[in-house]
Amino acid sequence: ATGLITLDPGFKNTGSCESAITFLDGEKGILRYRGYAIEELAEKADFLEVAYLLIFGELPNAQQLEKFHSDIKAESHVDEEMKKILDGFPKSAHPMGVLSSLTSALIAFNPSSVNVSSEQAMYHAIVRLLAKFPVLVAWTLRKKMGLPLDYGDDSLGYVENIHKMMFKKPNREYTKNPVAIEALDKLLILHADHEQNCSTSTVRMVGSSHAGLFASISAGISALWGPLHGGANMAVLDMLEAISADGGDTKKYMAKAKDKDDPFRLMGFGHRVYKNFDPRAKIIKKAADEVLSSLGVEDPILEVARGLEREALEDPYFVERKLYPNVDFYSGIIYRALGIPVDMFTVMFALGRLPGWIAQYREMRLNGEPIGRPRQVYVGANHRPFKALSAR
Ligand code: SDX
């Protein structure tokens, strides 16, 4: 398949490609991974199964899943020298910057992950990244919280191990919290892939030059960081907090969002593709209720979110522009209930999106796609003779 570059009337170059991984229908609010509906996967599968499905194209049988997980566990060690790089960051460093840097630094300690031209080398790089990335995520959080770095526990499930690495307190037994792990697993599934979004297109573009998998993922993390993309989940919480502090004055923020002179946008609303409800937002909204009540968490922010959503869905400005809640609108409320600091929310998005980025990178390399080279419509000056400094 060759990349197809099309220019839409607005000259927004919507470079596109062929892919067999994720299907979206923005009008009908449909999302499928390798043909399976997101609603079914979120209910019936776990994150490691979905990662396997996205990357290799089929749901794994018990034996394949067992081998996949044990291959990953065999690679869960992160070189001790990496801790020196982490120590170089101030505590105030943004976790997305730390994670992107550590992911790129991993290359130096895993040089064989650069050349993935054979299927075996690609598989090895994939299981290494799926093993080490959660450790880097946990280290990024624990460094911020002044906690000792943890390597997790290979006897646990993939997501349970992530939860333990992130939250195990020193000198205290780790208490398994099934509700929290189930909620985290579901959130990771819902973020796992989303066809050619900004960060995934970045991974494909960087990888198309045959840069290694780790380097391409590091670039994707930087793209996801932006507040118009994955950074929105943090911006939603900041916005809901501000509205709550303003006595819940949603009308004021709706007016700001509609004021063309005000750069403020209603974070967590709108989407480049969904011009109907984001199916993930529906699932997360339902889960937010369940998770908070089973964790016994009362979060007034949830009420503010519901009020804002109700108003926006009735407001002609938003209705005309088909602006509905997206995946980021409710996810932060669950992350917060799980004890995850706000500036780690986008890191959690990256953790969920990792298998999707890997699947898309692998597909692009297996398809032998040419190096990405978007075209442009030139709108600059015509040819003109040089003008001497004295004449300018
Ligand atoms: C993600 O692509 C993906 O799949 C991404 C993602 C994934 O899984 O990878 O789904 C994850 O990034 C979700 C989106 C998270 N971002 C936000 O929630 C930030 C807030 N949303 C917007 O910035 C915006 O809606 C975008 C960036 C998401 C989409 O922008 P578009 O499609 O380019 O819309 P636009 O900028 O062309 O806006 C169309 C109109 C404009 O008004 P008019 O010029 O027509 O008068 O809608 C307005 C915009 O001003 N508008 C908003 C708005 N989003 C669009 N007005 C107020 N609040 C908003 N959130």
TrEMBL record:
Keyword set, alphabetical order: Acyltransferase, Transferase, Tricarboxylic acid cycle
CDD domains in alphabetical order: EcCS_like
Family annotation (SUPFAM superfamilies): Citrate synthase
InterPro entries attached to this UniProt entry: Citrate_synth-like_lrg_a-sub, Citrate_synth-like_sm_a-sub, Citrate_synthase, Citrate_synthase_AS, Citrate_synthase_bac-typ, Citrate_synthase_sf, Citrate_synthase_typ-I
Reactions it catalyzes: oxaloacetate + acetyl-CoA + H2O = citrate + CoA + H(+)
GO MF term (any one): citrate synthase activity
UniProt entry tagged with the keyword Cytoplasm: no
Gene3D superfamilies (UniProt xref): 2.20.28.60, Citrate Synthase, domain 1, Cytochrome P450-Terp, domain 2
This protein's pathway: Carbohydrate metabolism; tricarboxylic acid cycle; isocitrate from oxaloacetate: step 1/2
Family: Belongs to the citrate synthase family.
Protein name, entry field: Citrate synthase
Lineage: Bacteria, Pseudomonadati, Bacteroidota, Flavobacteriia, Flavobacteriales
